[in-house]
Amino acid sequence: MAVNRNFRTCPSTGLVYHEPAEKLIRWNAVAGVVSLLVGGILALLVTLTRWPAVKLLPPDWFYLVLTAHGLDMLVFWIIFFEIAVLYFAASTLLKCRLATPRVAWVAFWLMIIGAITNNIAVFKGDSSVMFTSYVPMGAHPLFYLGLILFAVGALVACFVFFGTLVVGKAEKTYNGSIPLVTFGAVTAAIIAVFTIAAGAIILIPTFLWSVGLVSHIDSLMYRTVWWAFGHSSQQINVAAHVSVWYAIAAIVFGAKPMSEKVSRGAFVLYILFLQLASAHHLLADPGLTSNWKIFNTSYAMYLAVLASMVHGLTVPGAIEVAQREKGFNKGLFEWLRKAPWGNPCFSGMFMSLVGFGFLGGISGVMMGTEQLNLIIHNTIYVPGHFHATVVVGTTLAFMALTYFLIPTLFRRELMFPGMAKWQTYIYGLGMMGFSVFMMGAGTLGVPRRHWDMAFSGAALPHEFPGTAYLMMGLMAVSGVLAVVGGGMYLLNTVGSVFFGKKIQTPGFVRVPIKEGMAPAPVPAAVAPAGHGTIGIGGFVAPGTFVLAMVFLTSFVLYYFVNWKYLSTVWPLK
Amino acid sequence: MSAIQSPAQRVWWKQPLDRVEGTWIVIAFVWCMVMFFMMPYWHVYGKQNLSNEAYRSSPEAFLAKAQAMVDKHTVRTVTEQNIPVVHPVPGSDVYLVARLWQWWPVLELEEGQTYRLHIMSTDWLHGFSLQPENINIQVHPGYEHVVTMTPTKEGTYSIICNEYCGINHHTMASKLYVVKPKKS
């Protein structure tokens, strides 16, 4: 069978798309956005139910909708989009044909069937077990089966990605090493393989248990292995959205990594240490020793946290250097003031970076500390934290990337460019508020995954202080704002992709390419070129450094405030 | 070369470190070490550490121990369901059963006294959440967790469930009374 070697070059960006890869990237992205649409409607219902003044749904529907919201957002939306990013990072950035497109389609349809099966199980009403599906609470067998099929599809897609890297190397479509963004995508894919393996180890026995073939599954064993899947899948997101940050910095500013060594080294730290982090979900569990908890949650001495702190500096640092070289070299922050704040691609990415670091990062490290976890475990602080990492961090970064992909990948003009400018702000600020108010309510003890903070019908109800109700109200208002921002994104994306004005390129043809496309290798410069005369006091990115110090100060203060707070609660041994 | 192109030098790891990056890596690394050492430090000098003591148990065995305590130390009952309120001997072993959708029995402890609180679920996962102290512990079926606890101030506290446990999860709430020590 002949291999399809047809490519097209995007006239505006110069990117090269392999015909089958282009189609697969589009379809995976569309499947992701459809999941986001479903998950977004469910998000509104969840928010309106947890708004004490509204309390929209009855409890059975609330738990059903919350389960579906978690799965559609955290699994289906994000992973479909990530597969699109993987194919883009391999095929498009390496100017390489995608390996085995047919297998990639099998992967796609497995994921679709899995996602639909899982959703059917949830909406039937007998699988409201939440995203985590902790045993011994059982779901319908189709619930687990759907997840397993989806995971198998995602695993196959990862191997198509690895295969494409091999093809690129063999057919010499690029010179030297792979680009940094592709390197980040490799990181994400390696973590994905580990994650899916862990998922299989726990979900397959649970599926067998649900059909009666396995008699007992230990709840602590389940939580331990499940989180190797559940938390690691969030690390795929981190690796993927950090890659997207680098990509957007490169696309919008032509930014180069400050040094390849540091950025790539930080990705390697993710591969080596992130998986251990899943232990921080078990800090309040019996049956595990403190030594085990401390070693694992310190992410083997916080080396993965270090990696995120490095990316948090090098991404804006690379932007600062690029801006200064363009002439925005005055003072500390001219480069930032004169950044294209009206470009949703940049504004979305920058808010993702700031929100992920300040809200998601700091809160995550705080609650991942063995003793501090006692004062927030299972409160609504936890979803507050992960909405800052996964939604402000990952989803907002993916949204920002979409505004770049619509013209270059889908060849359509944005339907509402004015709306796009505002969308990232409305969504980003709404979501940041949502996270902050959840964290506020969590420090007052409001539980997560809970239908009624007034405990109606309980024999001995607890009365939360008025501030907690205020926090939950503010959370809901911010949540509604974020849903509006999400709706604007969906309207613009779906509208543009299906009804937007086509971008016509005169004389457009796909060019068949037989073998590699890389130009003849150029010998590397003897000494690497320096950054010239930009920056202040020998620092090429002083503004970023100042921002990093602001970040560190907030981190240190917040961290010790929580120790102070812990020291006032009842002594425990 | 930008981040979406191959690096200019094939051997990218020989590219020298930028000064901003080098400085930041050192600072961040030091901070990570501080955070790491805080945990062992608190085990030695801090007063709030979650116990590592846990035993495998069965619902029957655990319920029997809780029942024995209730039979011996019940001082009164609360609500129409006559939930027993237990006032155990300070320093003794105290049992708290988590089950759908109830904490059983209600405990009355003395201020400033230390108790060995045994918590276990007899069915699904539950979450022990003491309010407004905001102490939160995961409760597993089959794992009897022994937490040594010292109430510091008299008052009426609540124990709520903060691990989703089904349709009536929101009704799983109870009280914990802390009283001044009895003069004897």
Notes on the protein architecture:
The complex is a heterodimer of chains A (573) and B (184). Chain A has helices at 19-50, 59-92, 101-124, 141-170, 180-210, 219-253, 260-273, 290-297, 299-325, 334-337, 344-367, 381-409, 417-443, 466-499, 542-566, and strands spanning 6-9, 16-18, 511-512. With 573 residues, chain A is mainly alpha-helical. Chain A has a 3-stranded antiparallel β-sheet with strand order 2-1-3. In chain A, helix 9 (299-325) packs antiparallel against helix 11 and helix 12 packs parallel to helix 14 (466-499). Chain A is globular. Chain B is of the alpha+beta class and 184 residues long. Helices cover 23% and strands 36% of the residues of chain B. Chain B contains 2 helices and 12 strands; from the N terminus they run αβαβββββββββββ. In chain B, the strands form 2 sheets. Chain B has a 7-stranded mixed β-sheet. Chain B has a 5-stranded mixed β-sheet with strand order 1-10-7-4-5, covered by helices on one side. The radius of gyration of chain B is 25 Å and the shape is elongated. The mean pLDDT of chain B is 93. Chains A and B meet through helix 2, helix 6, helix 7, helix 8 and helix 9 of A and helix 1, strand 8, strand 9, strand 10 and strand 11 of B.
